[in-house]
């Protein structure tokens, strides 16, 4: 989404999927909540108290909205992008980034067969990725063993997207991965089953990582109280924008969790925010950060990111640090809505 404010333009992305299957949020819902609720609240805040700290105004504007964090992230990122372009400051600097490159890490979807999976991971290793994560599901544990056998020295993690349960069979299947030295097993159970994750974590040597289970600091505090995870996947979009995500990451690190930056299927707009976030100190582990050419033949930005020596350069230009091609956005858009102050 694009914001135009006092001669400045800013971009953000709400990378919700077309259907509410991975998260409750979905693309058409995100568009509706932006147009009907979030943007009008921002205009009201601007009318009532136009001056003052931007982050304070953002927090105040959306304080009474429940959930819809991807939609919120799109608007907040666009507001930050416009503001930081005006201030000639990069988002990375604004967030307190401590590095100019972040490690590239790959997250692969559920493969059709084990040979294809091993082949894809070989390609990833050749491309320089420093960690490869792939989807796992009940019954696919032998595939993980095959990958480990093929790549004994590679940093490997698996993500179950909630496909297991905390039954004895489920736990035994996960325990069969323990000898493989995986970096972590991500989100084995359903997102709302924190008690189940705590029971599973107790039985595993492999660190347990949570992703979609943690959106807020309250979720994180529950995870800490239950010892339900040792690693946290923080995504700017899932957490309501890069600033909220950074707050969550800091709190997780302070509690002793390893933290990495995840990503959605996102254009260079969303990826720029993710890479800037990943460059800040709480992010200690390799994230799910790839060039956007993995998702799109043509991106809407001038820089879809590339891997050099296993790393991705953190944008240093003002704002998100990428230039958006309006023509490409128009060409790929399936619908558009304009909301103006005073409408
Ligand atoms: Mg995940």
Quick description:
This protein is of the alpha/beta class and 343 residues long. It has helices spanning 27-48, 54-61, 69-86, 91-95, 114-127, 141-150, 168-175, 194-203, 217-226, 242-254, 268-278, 326-332; strands at residues 2-5, 8-11, 101-103, 105-108, 131-135, 156-159, 185-186, 208-210, 231-234, 258-261, 311-313. It is built from twelve helices and eleven strands.
Describe the structure.
- This protein folds into two domains: 2-88 and 325-332, Enolase-like, domain 1 (2-Layer Sandwich); 94-313, Enolase-like C-terminal domain (TIM Barrel, Alpha-Beta Barrel).
- Helices cover 40% and strands 12% of the residues.
- The protein has twelve helices and eleven strands.
- The strands form three sheets. A seven-stranded parallel β-sheet has the order 4-5-6-7-8-9-10. Strands 1-2 form a two-stranded antiparallel sheet. The protein has a two-stranded antiparallel sheet with strand order 3-11.
- The two termini are 18 Å apart.
- The model has no long low-confidence stretch (mean pLDDT 96).
- Bound molecules: magnesium ion.
- Magnesium ion is lined by residues 159, 161, 186-187, 211, 233.
Essential attributes:
single chain; 343 residues; Enolase-like, domain 1; TIM Barrel; seven-stranded parallel beta sheet; two-stranded antiparallel ribbon; 12 helices; globular
């Amino acid at each position: 989404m694009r914001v135009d404010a006092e001669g400045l333009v800013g971009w953000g992305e709400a990378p919700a999927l077309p259907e509410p299957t991975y998260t409750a949020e979905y693309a058409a819902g995100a568009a509706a909540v932006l147009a009907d609720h979030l943007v009008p609240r921002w205009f009201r805040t601007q009318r009532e108290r136009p001056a003052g700290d931007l982050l304070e105004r953002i927090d105040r504007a959306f304080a009474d909205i429940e959930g819809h964090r991807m939609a919120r992230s799109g608007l907040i990122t666009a507001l930050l992008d416009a503001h930081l372009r005006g201030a000639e400051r990069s988002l990375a600097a604004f967030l307190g980034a401590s590095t100019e490159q972040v490690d590239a890490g790959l997250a692969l979807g559920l493969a059709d067969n084990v040979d294809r999976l091993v082949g894809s991971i070989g390609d990833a290793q050749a491309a320089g990725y420093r960690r490869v994560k792939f989807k796992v599901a009940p019954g696919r544990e032998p595939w993980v063993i095959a990958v480990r056998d093929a790549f004994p020295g590679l940093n490997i993690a698996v993500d179950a997207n909630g496909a297991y349960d905390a039954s004895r069979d489920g736990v035994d299947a996960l325990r069969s991965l323990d000898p493989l030295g995986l970096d972590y097993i991500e989100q084995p159970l359903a997102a709302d089953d924190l008690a189940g994750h705590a029971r599973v974590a107790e039985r595993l040597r492999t660190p347990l990582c949570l992703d979609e289970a943690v959106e807020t600091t309250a979720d994180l505090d529950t995870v800490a109280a239950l010892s339900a995870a040792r690693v946290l996947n923080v995504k700017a979009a899932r957490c309501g924008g890069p600033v909220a995500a950074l707050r969550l990451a800091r709190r997780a690190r302070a509690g002793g969790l390893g933290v990495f930056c995840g990503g959605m299927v996102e254009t260079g707009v969303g990826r720029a925010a993710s890479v800037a976030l990943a460059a800040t100190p709480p992010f200690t582990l390799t994230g799910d950060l790839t060039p956007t050419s993995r998702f799109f033949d043509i991106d809407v930005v001038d820089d879809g990111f590339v891997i050099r020596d296993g790393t991705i350069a953190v944008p240093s230009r003002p704002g998100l640090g990428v230039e958006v091609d309006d023509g490409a956005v128009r060409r790929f858009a399936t619908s558009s809505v304009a909301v103006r102050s005073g409408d």
